[in-house]
UniProtKB/TrEMBL annotation:
It comes from Alkalilimnicola ehrlichii. One of its GO terms (biological process) is base-excision repair, AP site formation. This is Endonuclease III. The gene is nth. PROSITE patterns: ENDONUCLEASE_III_1, ENDONUCLEASE_III_2. The lineage of its organism: Bacteria, Pseudomonadati, Pseudomonadota, Gammaproteobacteria, Chromatiales. Transmembrane segments: none annotated. The keyword DNA-binding applies. Its cofactor is [4Fe-4S] cluster.
Length: 210
């Protein structure tokens, strides 16, 4: 994949969706942090359904702690792995209060030190809550980057590092949203919808359909 193709791919993705964002519903960095933590191995839709009830009642570390672990579970019990997610969120809330004045830190190390927060979650929060040009590689981005050959790699970290290198600067902040949405709705896992793909001619996937 050459630079000109990369630029053309993101130009088209931007034209189709000039202001992309996450499909998780949130209104503060803390709400986003909780939503992303809940979204591991769960759908955004399922998370939104739970947080629509949770956030009006508790959307700060102090309010979640006041709910307690069992109280929190009541709101998130429809989401996979809710027991461990509840435990992690409670521990993270304690750390946010003790170490960061109850605020979500704009700092990768501090974010990754929170229970249940890995590199991907930190990348989403840094990007979507704070506007930093990070690349949160999930299963969709991993697939699209490899199929198209924008940033082929065998590990998530390899793909992340390559994307950060090859995506032209002007697209960096929004690139991960475009790639996730493209993977979720067009370049789907089982049978990519190549016939409806706006980057068909630029994609280097050998098994393109249509
Ligand atoms: S052409 Fe097909 S394989 Fe390539 S990005 Fe589009 S949907 Fe995915």
């Amino acid at each position: 994949m050459n630079q000109q193709n990369d630029r053309e791919i993101f130009t088209r993705l931007r034209e189709a969706n000039p202001n992309p964002t996450t499909e998780l519903e949130y209104s503060t960095p803390f709400e986003l942090l909780v939503a992303v933590t809940l979204s591991a191995q769960a759908t955004d839709k399922g998370v939104n359904k739970a947080t629509a009830k949770l956030f009006p009642v508790a959307n700060t570390p102090a309010a979640i702690l006041a709910l307690g672990e069992d109280g929190l579970k009541e709101y998130i019990k429809t989401i996979g792995l809710f027991n461990s997610k509840a435990a992690n969120i409670i521990k993270a809330c304690k750390m946010l209060i003790e170490l960061h004045g109850g605020e979500v830190p704009r700092d990768r190390k501090a974010l990754e030190a929170l229970p249940g927060v890995g590199r991907k979650t930190a990348n989403v929060v840094l990007n979507t809550a704070f506007g930093e040009p990070t690349m949160a590689v999930d299963t969709h981005i991993f697939r699209v980057a490899n199929r198209t050959k924008i940033a082929p790699g065998t590990t998530v970290r390899q793909v992340e590092d390559k994307l950060l290198k090859v995506v032209p600067k002007e697209f960096l902040r929004d690139a991960h949203h475009w790639l996730i949405l493209h993977g979720r709705y067009v370049c789907v896992a089982r049978k990519p919808r190549c016939g409806a793909c706006i980057i068909y001619d630029l994609c280097e996937y050998k098994e393109k359909t249509a």
